[in-house]
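dumping the sequnces here before i forget
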Amino acid sequence: MTAAAPENAASGGNEMTGAGGPELRELYDGFAAENLTPLWTQRDDLMPPSPAPRAAAHVWRWHRLYRLAQRAGDLVPVGRGGERRAIALANPGLGGAAYATPTLWAAIQYLGPKETAPEHRHAQNAFRFVVEGEGVWTVVNGDPVRMSRGDLLLTPGWHFHGHHNETDQPMAWLDGLDIPFSHYADTGFFEFGSDRVTDYATPNFSRSERLWGHPGLRPLSGLRDTVSSPIAAYRWEHTDRALTEQLLLEEEGQPATVEQGHAAVRYVNPTTGGDVMPTIRAEFHRLRPGAATATRREVGSSVFQVVDGEGHVTLGGKRHELRQGDLFTVPSWVPWSLSAEDGFDLFRFSDAPVMERLHVARTHLEGPEGPEGPEGDTR
Amino acid sequence: MTAAAPENAASGGNEMTGAGGPELRELYDGFAAENLTPLWTQRDDLMPPSPAPRAAAHVWRWHRLYRLAQRAGDLVPVGRGGERRAIALANPGLGGAAYATPTLWAAIQYLGPKETAPEHRHAQNAFRFVVEGEGVWTVVNGDPVRMSRGDLLLTPGWHFHGHHNETDQPMAWLDGLDIPFSHYADTGFFEFGSDRVTDYATPNFSRSERLWGHPGLRPLSGLRDTVSSPIAAYRWEHTDRALTEQLLLEEEGQPATVEQGHAAVRYVNPTTGGDVMPTIRAEFHRLRPGAATATRREVGSSVFQVVDGEGHVTLGGKRHELRQGDLFTVPSWVPWSLSAEDGFDLFRFSDAPVMERLHVARTHLEGPEGPEGPEGDTR
Amino acid sequence: MTAAAPENAASGGNEMTGAGGPELRELYDGFAAENLTPLWTQRDDLMPPSPAPRAAAHVWRWHRLYRLAQRAGDLVPVGRGGERRAIALANPGLGGAAYATPTLWAAIQYLGPKETAPEHRHAQNAFRFVVEGEGVWTVVNGDPVRMSRGDLLLTPGWHFHGHHNETDQPMAWLDGLDIPFSHYADTGFFEFGSDRVTDYATPNFSRSERLWGHPGLRPLSGLRDTVSSPIAAYRWEHTDRALTEQLLLEEEGQPATVEQGHAAVRYVNPTTGGDVMPTIRAEFHRLRPGAATATRREVGSSVFQVVDGEGHVTLGGKRHELRQGDLFTVPSWVPWSLSAEDGFDLFRFSDAPVMERLHVARTHLEGPEGPEGPEGDTR
Amino acid sequence: MTAAAPENAASGGNEMTGAGGPELRELYDGFAAENLTPLWTQRDDLMPPSPAPRAAAHVWRWHRLYRLAQRAGDLVPVGRGGERRAIALANPGLGGAAYATPTLWAAIQYLGPKETAPEHRHAQNAFRFVVEGEGVWTVVNGDPVRMSRGDLLLTPGWHFHGHHNETDQPMAWLDGLDIPFSHYADTGFFEFGSDRVTDYATPNFSRSERLWGHPGLRPLSGLRDTVSSPIAAYRWEHTDRALTEQLLLEEEGQPATVEQGHAAVRYVNPTTGGDVMPTIRAEFHRLRPGAATATRREVGSSVFQVVDGEGHVTLGGKRHELRQGDLFTVPSWVPWSLSAEDGFDLFRFSDAPVMERLHVARTHLEGPEGPEGPEGDTR
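..and the predicted 3d for all of it:
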């Protein structure tokens, strides 16, 4: 037998399945009976020239999410079993699964006045980001952590955690987890904890911050590196100041920003300088009024939330207006860029640590004005 | 509102969906309209107490695979487009997808006399393991690599490769790849190369072996660590000798084996001592006649192939007889153990590097006689 | 020939040299003529049972150092060639070399009113610690860095740096470098820079602090790890607060201190979580009034400076009273412990990163009350 | 006071010491009384523009060493206390210390017929290299290791070891250790062991080789990385074959050698791919007849031994003829190059791991014809 002509092999296989006569049909039936599948009929789909994600680039509007979350607050109790009043972004390309992207979970969680979400722990890594509101404490392995606007709060895998609302007002925030990856790869463990949180104290600063929240300093009682960051709360005050300084340094002609008018920080584990958790990267981006980013493609997926200001995102060539609280997903290899009306603040989380640790990360950079701009392909 | 009773929250949510009256129905319709999904109705499924894989522990019989592969050799050409005459294990729990496990691809590839499989490259990591036969050379980035019984041959991501059969006999072997992970996480790139292989030479040893195949020695021209192993071929001669020595050392009372009567080696990247490729671990296990392993549960999934001898595997409590060439899958957290009739040789590959790099690996060890034996839970 | 009796071989060798008759004398003369030396006559000295440092545990009094530095300020100009008005601790055990320990340099540097110390750079790693005073800026690779009481200022290898005093008062501080190691191992490079500092601005915060001094945050413009810390100034405000919080947490019953009443931080490189420079570790220790540390022996050497309070150090069994500014050295494997009269603050630097990177670090812990206390030997 | 003129500061300081009048003399006396030393009088020596080693580039002739070693065999017993009949290269620049370079010890060790060198262990890392002879076994942590021509044998820190000669012929070999570094940095520990070796068996292969000496394979019983290589013996057979293959590959037009006609391997720890021990690098170099290397300068020091063939080394511009067994030292930053008469085989060891781990390594490459050739400066 000689090698088939290029075009024939794949489609030929497909054709044969249908039209290929009784012998081929018998072969394919044999495959099916033995739990086998040929490569040649599906190679194209399984191994595309570049990532062809099923997940969609999609925008969710915060005011609609919030309204539905409020309604859920009226109708659905929070408690043991369901555990959380969290409403997840279900990517329209992923067939109804409660997944923002193949690897990432993003949800709005809503806690009514005086409510408690009971304690549990799971192997899945989790964080909360607070786009508005205050008055809730999350208790992580017994350490009460205040949740306020602009804060990033971590609940790394296998840490017990519950939440309680001290106030007469409801509060809602963004939950991010690696539930989809964990479900896909069968890595999850889950345990119930206390029905109430173990400590109802409401300190301004968690013990983790008091021990770890000093720049460039490490307690001698904490010399063993930890898989995830030991800092439970990354406060808005620090994030805001870091971004402000980057833009001021840029004005002074110093290298400080990612690109003109675009300041950004990554939240890191102070014991390693690396990502806060092994499967999730968290960053904060700020654009000056009128600034625009280059267009990037990256292997791996992200979720962004607008924290302040107004602007646009261009996702796969389509432009979307964005306001405070709005969320959007960027699937693998979909080109994206941001532009700011006035000052524009965005929180971002992604599965980049997965891609980097498995050495499949790639980034492609186009210029801010499209393919004419400076380009680069890093692998 | 107070916290719901433990049982009510989750099931209650479900109930409410159906029976919850018009208000709840309206809420859930609102979720659907906005591409949202509540956590509380599916928390149990998404976050089980321990991994609850959909993938099945399943055994495929080599003689049946081989017969179907032969038949495909008669009926289906190999060539550009379909690229390879490879027939993949389709795990019965994974809905017909050509996946041995959620992360791993395993296929029998069949190349007829004098055939050539054209060159291509892809971001996906690949290897071949030869359970029987000889006469094919795989050409990896221009380096011709002989394929013979017992050899492990690597084709790390983005290396061009094609195969050609020099003989008048067909040859079949096991292909292993991370296609399922790559497809899931949208990390794949693919490029066609030469329609013929770039070098039809048939040396006994590849250039990579001549440069890198000397124990404990590293060429000064190769001081930069590589993501994947630079060794293209791991020869049976070395594997067999390493296992033989372990069993002899055990007889001499020296620590050498994994457990009594169980020798094993891991194939490694000599530049790091770590796994041969960032997403795939490869090992070879040998049991003495009559020996049995402890029962293990591990996070992550594996595929085994019997290379020689006869024995049994107990998978999730069910015992299967095994002969040369037979393949079986071990999904995440399914207990497994092996026992040997006579000498029993098995090749294994797994996604363990993914689990370890993302810090979700766990192993649970039961004794060879079940839960009464020594136990351990490592995390 | 049979093996010699234990005692005879070494000393016997020595004896033979002198009294051993003409044949042996001829042999030893032959060695000398060929630039050879026998091991057996000096094995004991070269390879002692445990480290037998020539360097002494010694205390230097700040008020005496300061008075001599003042006098040098009157008599010795600062400028190109000599470069710095720095007066080094010369360990009495090291034969007059300007070395505090075999690996570490410690000096008091004195800069008169309006003086400038010209710019240069060297492969040697350097830092300054300010025990008192203010008004000097050090300019590191063009970035002006304020020097104030309690601050640690870094000048990692091959960074240009100069200092200038803006005030009408002199200022003195502690310089720490790895000059002895560099001189010993022949690793040093040196280059002159500008005769004046390149930037006479006097900002409160260096650009490095504005970019890097935010806890748990890393600029996206600084994702490449650096060998030494990118933070030029570790401010007293942060160090003091970190130590205060550790003692408060201890009072609340939380794990935070090294041992009862003993708070401590390590200064770290935020890109890695490791030491600030590859050859020098820097730490700050605070003891509550009345507290005492355990007695430790460590491989490697340290220099301490008292920053505040009064107390004692016990060095190799000998007790020394300490006041603000006093310095002392701890050679390898010499047992040391601290006790506080009132609150007791000490800055410490050491060659511990060298010991750890070369895998020769060992620590032995005795109890605070001597050998009856809890012990440990870590290797 | 204003800054001094460049030339005046340093020399001025010196001058002042002598001629500077009573005030300065009093100041310097004050320094001396307080164990202090000024920087400005010695900055030039302590911090030269580039490394200015005291150690000399020097050649020792094997036949002279061997003759003296034989004579020592007649006159000096081997046994407890002196421990070894080892005669060390004493670098003529290092004031008579038994140091080949500031960091490295190199000695010829001589063991007479049927002699035993008793067991001991020390924190110092050690190896033996055999330039000629056979018949001795070294017993490392109880594992008997045959010593034969061309073999490298390891005794990493804190491994018990002794040697015994099974034959009626004496045997001599090269010992390499980090004694000078250990003595300098006060890191050494030493313990006596058994007066006789613990196992007088004479197997062809050590247990360590049987477990670890298989290319690209790692025993599952040895998954924990080790600080030093677990391979006790690197056999000539493998080294020779690796070098032969590199030269053959070069002839085939493949990249394999360091530079034209210059093959080289590094001995590595298979658990990491890095150096065999944390303080010592070991390599083997082979030049084709007539080949010459580029001229290199490197931070750190080396010792070479000619294992076979004849050629020359040019050290700091001076050419030396070399024959089998000859040894020479290359101090830090001294330019060196090799040229071969006929085939030329050299063993090399160095302190390069120290330099790299402490980030002070630099290499400067000149062309083989001097400064006109291609250059490079890597830092």
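Chains B and C do not touch (no CB pair under 8 Å).
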